Amino acid sequence: MKVAIVGATGMVGTEIIAVLEAYNLPVDTYYFVASERSAGKPIQFKDETYTIIGLSDAVEKKPDIAIFSAGGATSFEWAPKFEAVGTTVIDNSSAFRMDEDKCLVVPEINADLLKSTDKIIANPNCSTIQLVMVLAPLHKKYGVKRVVVSTYQSISGSGMKAMRQLENEKNGVKGEMAYPYPIEGNCLPHCDSFTENGYTKEEMKLTNETKKIIDPSINVTATAVRVPVSGGHSEAVNIEFESDFDLADVRKILHEMQGVTLKDNIDTNTYPMPLYAKGKDDVFVGRIRRDESQANTLNLWIVADNLRKGAATNAVQIAAYLIDKKLVG
Ligand code: A2P
C-alpha cells in the first residue's frame, strides 16, 4: 500500500501527517509531495526523515491513494493524472465536490457509496462536515425540513497568510493582508468570494454540499462569518423538523453518533468551544434547546477543529475505509 500526501508542507497537509501518525494505517510507503520549491527538502514523519518530491515524480510512483490538499487548481490539473495511473485521489479542494459522478464523503454518513471504480473522491468543505455530522442522524429520525446556519469561522481556514495577518495586527506590525479589512477585534461577514446571488461561495457550499451528502429536499440558508479565532469553526444552527421531537431523544441520538461528542450542561457551563476542540478529531455539540418561537424547531451549537475533522481527519478516515474494504491496492 503506497500513499502520497500532496500539499504535505501546507496547513492541512501538516495536520494530515499528524492524523496519519496517530491512525497507524497499514501503509508500506508514504510519499510527501509539494511544489517544486519544496522538492528535495526534508520532512519528518514518525521518527523518519523523508525527502519531499514534486508532482511528476509522485505520479511515476503510482501510489494506491493520493490525499490532495494543495488548492483547487492543483487538484484540477493533477488529480486526473494520478487517476490515469490507477491512483485513488481523495481531494480536499472544492474542485470536484459538486460533480455528479464524484462521491462527496463523510465516512460516518455515506462511506457505503464508495466503490473501487471511484478514482476521485471529494472531501466536503470544513463547515459542511461539522454541520452534517449533527444533521444526518437527526434527519434519519425526525426528517430535517429547513436549516438556518450562522458560522463563526477561524482564520486557519484561510491559510498561512491569514494567520500572519492576525499575528501582525496583534503585534502592531504592518504586513500583507489576507482579508480586505483588519481581522483582530473584528468580524467579517465574508468567507470566500461573493457569488451572483449575493451569498458567498462558503455559504453556497454549506447549502449545496449538505443537500448532496444528506438529502436534496433539505432547505439550507447560511451566513458565514470570519472571526479572529486562530483555529476551530463554530456554528449556531436552527433546525426545523418535519415532525415534533423529544429533546432527551435528540441528545441520545447525538450521543450515539460516532464522531460526535455531546458537551451540553448549562449547570456547569459546559458547551463546545474552539479552544477545546483544537487538535481533536470529533465534532462537539451543545446548547441544545427548543426554539420556542416555532413548532418542531431546535437550536444548537456545533464546534470542530476545521483542520482536523473539517479536512485532515475526514480525508484520512476515507483512506482508512478504502484500505479496510479493499477498494484500493
Ligand atoms: P509548497 O510548500 O512547496 O508551496 P497552504 O494551503 O497551507 O498554503 O498549503 C498549500 C500546499 O500545497 C503546500 O504544501 C504547497 O507546497 C502545495 N502546493 C501549492 N502549489 C503547488 C503546486 N503547484 N504543486 C504542488 N504542490 C503545491
How would you describe the overall organization of this protein?
It is a single chain. Helices cover 33% and strands 23% of the residues. The chain has 329 residues and is an alpha/beta fold. β11 (260-262), α9 and β12 (283-290) form a beta-alpha-beta unit. α5 (126-142) packs parallel to α7 (201-213). Bound molecules: adenosine-2'-5'-diphosphate.
- What ranges have pLDDT less than 50 throughout 5 or more consecutive residues? none
CATH architecture of the largest domain: 2-Layer Sandwich
> What is the arithmetic mean of pLDDT?
98
Cα-to-Cα separation, first versus last residue: 6 Å
**Hetero ligands:** adenosine-2'-5'-diphosphate
How would you describe the shape? globular
Radius of gyration, in Å, reads 20 Å
Derived structural class:
alpha/beta
Q: CATH topology of the largest domain, anyone?
A: Dihydrodipicolinate Reductase, domain 2
Give the helix/strand layout.
Elements: E1 2-6, H1 11-23, E2 29-33, E3 42-45, E4 48-51, H2 55-60, E5 65-68, H3 72-84, E6 88-91, H4 107-110, E7 120-122, H5 126-142, E8 144-153, H6 160-170, H7 201-213, E9 219-226, E10 233-241, H8 247-256, E11 260-262, H9 274-277, E12 283-290, E13 297-304, H10 308-324
Parallel strand pairs: 1-2, 1-5, 5-6, 6-7, 8-9, 11-12
Antiparallel strand pairs: 3-4, 8-10, 10-13, 12-13
Helix pairs in contact: 1-10, 5-7, 5-10
Bound molecules: adenosine-2'-5'-diphosphate.
